[in-house]
Design goal:
InterPro entries: MCP_dom_sf, MCP_transmembrane. The protein is mainly α and 134 residues long. Helices cover 72% and strands 0% of the residues. The longest helix has 39 residues.
Length: 134
């Protein structure tokens, strides 16, 4: 039942957005979101590849062993994945900030953030680098 209520709410919200901004209003923030996805994928795979190539330091057991224990292997692979995901998250966070600001400005009926590059300039001019991590 709750799924039907959520679907009905989303349908009503979409109708309201279309009524106010047209169908294009449904896609506010899509550009920065697509950039975040693409850049995040590239950063994640690049960092993960570099970690694999360089052989990140062993977390358990200070010395390299010919045959790692399975726990050690899991911890090391998980650490590499966490590093890659963290780097991707940090790099793409500014795009998520812009995405949200583009979508939320509908509520305040603002037109401050109109495109990706204009939004980057606006955030930087008004809040500096820290604005991208707000």
């Amino acid at each position: 039942v709750s799924v039907l209520v959520k679907c009905h709410f989303l349908y009503d919200a979409a109708k309201h957005i279309i009524k106010i901004d047209g169908k294009a209003g449904l896609y506010k923030g899509l550009g920065p979101r697509l950039c975040a996805g693409a850049i995040g994928t590239v950063v994640h795979s690049t960092v993960l590849q570099k970690c694999q190539e360089k052989g990140t330091p062993q977390v358990l057991g200070g010395q390299q062993k010919a045959a790692e224990s399975s726990l050690q292997h899991v911890v090391n692979e998980t650490t590499k994945e966490m590093v890659a995901r963290s780097c991707a998250t940090i790099i793409t966070h500014p795009f998520h900030v812009i995405t949200l600001r583009c979508m939320v400005q509908f509520i305040g009926r603002e037109t401050k953030y109109s495109g990706l590059f204009d939004s980057i300039v606006t955030v930087y001019r008004e809040e500096g680098v820290l604005g991208f991590f707000a």
